[in-house]
């Protein structure tokens, strides 16, 4: 089961803490952890860790675990490099839940210090109840614990992912944990922790098998080849001493072609001459890597750090990260992923099914798609589904609302900018969405709102498949698929001079028009049932029954706001309803017409709906029948006749 609503999770926690009630919505592992926490006598309202080692005891523990820490630290630093700047901590613990080493930014470490989430603190279940570290130890398995899934309130603002670390014999010897703000929860976080813990275990196994001099060589090989970036070690003269498999793949050269050579023989970049002479370290400098004797180039981030022995510099370590891998990680953490598939689209109406089949066919090509239709018809949903059905499904899906971003900022948002391009520009510049979306899909919503100046730049990108950052001169090749959407008639906008004709033809390769909800009334009950189930669970009103006349009332309305309006109206009705049943009286008055449907006997509306409308209007007007009649657009005498006809009693 995926994550549920934060407020609902808090309620489920309160149900257990105050009323000893375990709701089946709570994950099984968490249920069992809560029960153990209660049996341990843990105070759920504690605000910080209660068991702390002295500095001497912590130093002794770290000495005992020296080998585990020595192996883990480089991989922890590698893991932390992916989440640096996102308020995450990376933590190593022993098998009893004592924190031994924490990596993080100063501001996040200060927050952790407030709850004593620090080196030397115990975060076992016995000490702090259900939490990722303690529960991981208890079940000897990876786990992610989020918000109020934690047993103690101290941890409710956090999301934590932990994985066990075993030695070569399978004995539990530690835990690797990553913790951050609750709103940044992401399933990929646990996967990253599990992968790093596995790499640590792999190196532990190598050490166990290869003690002595052979062990040190094997350890170096395993360490470098489990890194996610390329690595080069050079001596002070620039001679290459060691490389890893990732580097070989990036530059398409084998180890024997590199080791022993001068680094300037391998690369044509002047950068390598500069770092050989420089004493300063370089951190994530972006360059286009040029390999000697080859046309191959790669855009990378390079970091260089000095290597010292007895305080004397003996060489440098260069790490090389491929730009597209870095951006892929950024996209995962920033949520640039499509969540909806065609299986999630609700409806059996002939018109929507026809569009869906056309969209599935479009997904199998790489052509640009133009989605049109009224506001609220689900153009964004179809865009995500097309992406997830395409060969680009594992690449980024980036949505841009062209009408929601100021015109002056849209260019930098799409194309990026260089350092100093304009006042307020971020130091070092930043890539635009076209670069971040490499290999994936860019969804341009409200494309008709894009200015003519920006249309020219977009047309150039579509024609040349490359971008130039604002304020820059370097040409960056891009490979993205465009899906555009609008609720306007773009042909008319072209005729009015508001939209470029050449850009229209570029976008309108595969046109798809989504039908309004009033043209697929037979789908309204299906959509309503789907939304009611989801909304009731989120709001905490389950199970919820629905009167058939409730669906009948929904089918009479014109739905100018389409599916989006239907969802909003249903949420309002669920919140407003007193019991566990939805009836027409829970719907707002505008659904029953802006004039007198009561006076139009030919309308196919059931008597129960009319009765509910009468009762609702009279209640809204607090028994003032003249006001109720005006509200319904009928005379007072007609109101009395309708009340008598439908059995509505006068208020006393």
UniProtKB/TrEMBL annotation:
InterPro entries: AAA+_ATPase, AAA_lid_NorR, GAF, GAF-like_dom_sf, Homeodomain-like_sf, HTH_Fis, P-loop_NTPase, PAS. SUPFAM superfamilies: GAF domain-like, Homeodomain-like, P-loop containing nucleoside triphosphate hydrolases, PYP-like sensor domain (PAS domain). PROSITE patterns: PAS, SIGMA54_INTERACT_1, SIGMA54_INTERACT_3, SIGMA54_INTERACT_4. It comes from the Bacteria. Keywords: ATP-binding, DNA-binding, Nucleotide-binding, Transcription, Transcription regulation. CDD domains: AAA, PAS. Pfam families: AAA_lid_14 (PF25601), GAF (PF01590), HTH_8 (PF02954), Sigma54_activat (PF00158). Residues 216-267 form the PAS domain. Coiled coil: none annotated. Residues 345-575 form the Sigma-54 factor interaction domain. The keyword Transcription regulation applies. PANTHER family: C4-DICARBOXYLATE TRANSPORT TRANSCRIPTIONAL REGULATORY PROTEIN DCTD, TRANSCRIPTIONAL REGULATORY PROTEIN. NCBIfam families: sensory_box. This is Sigma-54-dependent Fis family transcriptional regulator.
């Amino acid at each position: 089961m995926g994550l549920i609503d934060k407020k609902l999770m808090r309620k489920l926690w309160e149900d257990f803490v105050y009323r000893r009630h375990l709701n089946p919505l709570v994950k099984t592992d968490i249920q069992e952890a809560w029960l153990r926490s209660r049996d341990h006598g843990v105070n759920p309202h504690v605000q910080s860790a209660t068991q702390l080692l002295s500095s001497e005891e912590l130093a002794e523990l770290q000495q005992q675990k020296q080998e585990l820490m020595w192996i883990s630290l480089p991989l922890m630093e590698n893991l932390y490099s992916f989440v640096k700047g996102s308020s995450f901590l990376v933590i190593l613990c022993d098998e009893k839940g004592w924190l031994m080493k924490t990596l993080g930014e100063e501001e996040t470490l200060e927050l952790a210090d407030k709850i004593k989430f620090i080196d030397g603190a115990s975060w076992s279940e016995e000490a702090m109840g259900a939490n990722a570290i303690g529960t991981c130890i208890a079940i000897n398995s990876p786990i992610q614990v989020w918000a109020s899934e934690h047993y103690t309130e101290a941890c409710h603002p956090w999301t934590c992912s932990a994985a066990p670390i075993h030695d070569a014999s399978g004995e539990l010897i530690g835990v690797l944990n990553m913790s951050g703000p609750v709103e940044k929860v992401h399933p990929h976080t646990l996967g990253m922790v599990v992968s790093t813990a596995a790499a640590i275990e792999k190196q532990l196994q190598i050490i166990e098998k290869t003690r002595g001099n052979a062990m040190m060589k094997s350890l170096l090989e395993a360490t470098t080849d489990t890194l996610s970036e390329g690595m080069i070690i050079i001596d002070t003269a620039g001679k290459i001493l060691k490389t890893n498999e990732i580097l070989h793949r990036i530059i398409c050269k084998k180890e024997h072609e590199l080791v022993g050579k001068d680094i300037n023989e391998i690369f044509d970049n002047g950068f390598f001459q500069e770092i050989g002479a420089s004493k300063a370290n370089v951190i994530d400098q972006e360059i286009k890597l040029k390999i000697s004797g080859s046309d191959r180039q790669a855009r990378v981030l390079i970091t260089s750090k000095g290597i010292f022995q007895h305080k004397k510099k003996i060489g440098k370590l260069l790490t090389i990260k491929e730009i597209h891998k870095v951006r892929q990680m950024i996209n995962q953490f920033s949520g640039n992923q499509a969540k909806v598939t065609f299986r999630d689209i609700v409806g059996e109406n002939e018109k929507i099914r026809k569009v869906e089949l056309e969209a599935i066919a479009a997904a199998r090509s790489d052509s640009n798609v133009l989605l049109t239709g009224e506001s609220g018809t689900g153009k964004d949903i179809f865009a995500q589904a097309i992406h997830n059905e395409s060969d680009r499904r594992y690449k980024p899906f980036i949505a841009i609302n062209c009408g929601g971003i100021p015109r002056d900022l849209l260019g930098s948002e799409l194309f990026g900018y260089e350092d100093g391009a304009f006042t307020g520009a971020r130091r070092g510049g930043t890539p635009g969405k076209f670069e971040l979306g490499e290999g994936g899909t860019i969804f341009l919503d409200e494309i008709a709102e894009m200015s003519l100046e920006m249309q020219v730049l977009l047309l150039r990108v579509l024609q040349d498949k490359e971008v130039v950052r604002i304020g820059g001169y370097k040409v960056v090749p891009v490979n993205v698929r465009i899906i555009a959407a609008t609720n306007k008639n773009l042909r008319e906008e072209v005729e009015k001079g508001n939209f470029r004709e050449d850009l229209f033809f570029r976008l309108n390769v595969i046109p798809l028009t989504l039908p309004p909800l009033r043209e697929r009334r037979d789908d309204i009950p299906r959509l309503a049932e789907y939304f009611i189930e989801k909304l009731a669970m989120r709001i905490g009103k389950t199970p919820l029954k629905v009167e058939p006349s409730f669906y009948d009332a929904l089918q009479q309305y014109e739905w100018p706001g389409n599916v989006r309006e239907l969802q909003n109206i249903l949420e309002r009705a669920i919140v407003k309803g007193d019991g566990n049943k939805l009836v027409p009286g829970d719907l707002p008055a505008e659904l029953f017409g802006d004039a007198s449907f009561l006076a139009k006997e030919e309308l196919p509306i059931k008597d129960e709906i009319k009765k509910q409308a009468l009762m609702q209007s009279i209640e809204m007007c607090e028994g003032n029948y003249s006001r109720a009649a005006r509200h319904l657009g009928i005379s007072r005498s007609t109101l009395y006749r309708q009340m008598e006809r439908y059995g509505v009693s006068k208020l006393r």
